[in-house]
Design goal:
It is a single chain. This protein is of the alpha+beta class and 493 residues long. It has 3 domains: 236 residues, no CATH class; 76 residues; 134 residues, Glutaredoxin. 40% of the residues lie in helices and 20% in strands. It is built from 17 helices and 17 strands. Strands 12-11-15-14-13-16-17 form a 7-stranded mixed β-sheet. Strands 4-1-7-8 form a 4-stranded mixed β-sheet, with no helix packed on it. Strands 3-2-5-6 form a 4-stranded antiparallel β-sheet. Strand 16 and strand 17 form a beta hairpin. Helix 8 packs antiparallel against helix 9. The chain starts with a helix and ends with a helix. The N terminus is likely disordered.
Length: 493
């Protein structure tokens, strides 16, 4: 408490005496690309067993979703496989420093800046994550700034929660923006005071100050304001839209996302069985023509992101049209090749197959459900439908491993079928969950089989008997007593 009071004293002095910062050429982070990939490690410590919450069961609101923004705005997300024991995640990236994020119950997000070779330790105190580095010394608040910020500025619960009730009222929203602008100005002075007193590093100071700028701009470009009350919005400058050194920052991606969909496109998204979707085709066309985005790197990043959205949510005909445009515009054979591998476009012709149920394995070899049933004739087959992005699915994976171990050596096959559309995300998630055998990616999830059995919501479990016939379309989950009783009964026959 004494440290915080002292910090506020320093903060007040800075507020009263510091002039506006004039140094404009400080880059956020050193982003020099190296031929050798840089190594990063994150260790999630075992949680206190007295904490009875199992956060992975709260839908997508995992206790500690760890992620970073990769090249071309690819979200790289890691979910600890089991909170009952220590879990280690290793990853590589082509930059010597990278911003990373820890999302806590989707209410709080903590921003950190890692350097090559860093080992980040995530542990929990009274259910809240605490973070520190194992391998080097660092300034006092380098890895606890966001917790300090919430205490110092008395932020409780969901920040800016009032935004949801005033968004459609331009007068109240304008007052809210003015208040928020003043808060961000105070925060920037606060950040400067920390740096002046060697409590955060220069690179982290720059990251935090840029975050205040682009979070404010993002707030000012909500859909309702840009479409119906454009006079209230804060204009985006050409300089704001072309900061290449920020392309791995989540706040900058959010800012560009708002610019693309709300300011350029002005089209409200729609709700469907696939969730909330935006008009990515129109957005692609507008980004392609936009004169304010001068950076080829940023334009290429945005077009790649939008093409992925078109692939995910639009027809194959739409995707084929925009993919041809994309290949001509980016003029990058390596990027195109990576895109084809990522979305297994070499199997695209099979995606509309209705009669057969088709899969690929991690070696990109195609096989059918019929192949799997023939291979495992005489055994029970317990099928787990999942996806890399499905938190409840992955929450059940430790239980599935326990169940599998209990029936090891018996005539039961555990089959994992992912409905991911991204081959690489499926592979990464499979590695994280340590699923090696009988693990496949569905390449035609619109087949009649899925429609007839209504395989839309996941996790979903099915059970085949020893003859290869479905006997349970909605089998019990792996953490239940019912599935064990069912296995025992069927195995005894």
């Amino acid at each position: 408490m004494k440290n915080i009071k002292l910090l506020f004293l320093v903060f007040c002095i800075v507020c009263g005496s510091c002039k506006q910062e004039t140094k404009t050429n400080e880059n956020l982070v050193a982003t020099k690309t190296k031929k050798q990939l840089n190594q990063y490690t994150v260790i999630f410590k075992k949680r206190d067993t007295s904490d009875t919450h199992n956060p992975r069961l709260y839908g997508c609101a995992d206790i500690s979703n760890f992620y970073y923004i990769g090249n071309y705005f690819h979200l790289k997300q890691f979910i600890p496989s089991d909170y009952k024991k220590t879990d280690t995640i290793n990853f590589q990236f082509n930059k010597a420093k990278i911003p990373v994020y820890l999302s806590y119950y989707q209410v709080q997000t903590f921003d950190y800046l890692l350097s090559s070779g860093d080992t980040l330790i995530v542990q929990y105190k009274e259910g809240m994550p605490e973070v520190k580095l194992m391998n080097r010394k660092y300034p006092k608040y380098e890895f606890s700034y966001d917790s300090l910020r919430r205490k110092s500025f008395q932020i409780k619960g969901i920040e800016d929660e009032e935004l949801f009730s005033i968004e459609k009222n331009p007068v109240n929203f304008k007052k809210f923006l003015l208040k928020k602008k003043k808060k961000y100005e105070k925060e920037r002075l606060f950040i400067d005071s920390l740096y002046t007193n060697n409590l955060i590093s220069l690179d982290y100071k720059n990251l935090l100050k840029e975050r205040t700028v682009y979070n404010y701009l993002k707030l000012s470009s909500s859909y309702y304001l840009t479409k119906y009350y454009p006079e209230v919005t804060v204009p985006y400058s050409k300089e704001d839209l072309n900061k290449e050194h920020l392309t791995n920052c989540r706040f900058y991606f959010s800012f560009l996302y708002n610019y693309t969909y709300n300011i350029l496109n002005k089209q409200r998204g729609t709700y469907s069985k696939n969730g909330f979707t935006r008009d990515s085709k129109s957005a692609f066309d507008l980004v392609l023509k936009d004169s304010l985005i001068e950076s080829n790197k940023i334009k290429k990043h945005l077009l790649t992101f939008l093409l992925e959205q078109i692939y995910t949510y639009n027809s194959r005909e739409d995707f084929a049209k925009y993919y041809d445009i994309y290949k001509g515009v980016v003029n990058d054979s390596l990027l195109v090749s990576n895109f084809e591998k990522k979305f297994i476009l070499d199997f695209a012709t099979y995606s509309e197959e209705k009669k057969k149920v088709l899969f690929v394995n991690r070696n990109r070899k195609m096989l059918t459900m019929e192949d799997i049933l023939k291979k495992n004739k005489g055994k029970l087959i317990y099928v787990d439908y999942w996806a890399s992005w499905c938190a409840p699915c992955r929450a059940m994976m430790p239980e599935s491993k326990i169940l599998k171990e209990e029936y090891k050596g018996k005539d039961i096959v555990f089959l994992y079928i992912s409905i991911d559309k991204d081959f690489e995300k499926w592979k990464d998630a499979s590695k994280e969950e340590n699923i090696s055998s009988n693990n496949f990616l569905a390449i035609n999830p619109k087949a009649d089989f899925y429609k007839e059995l209504n395989v839309g919501r996941i996790p979903r479990y099915m059970l085949y008997n020893k003859k290869g016939e479905i006997i349970h379309k909605n089998a019990p989950k792996p953490d239940t007593k019912e599935i064990r009783e069912l296995f025992d009964k069927l195995l005894s026959k």
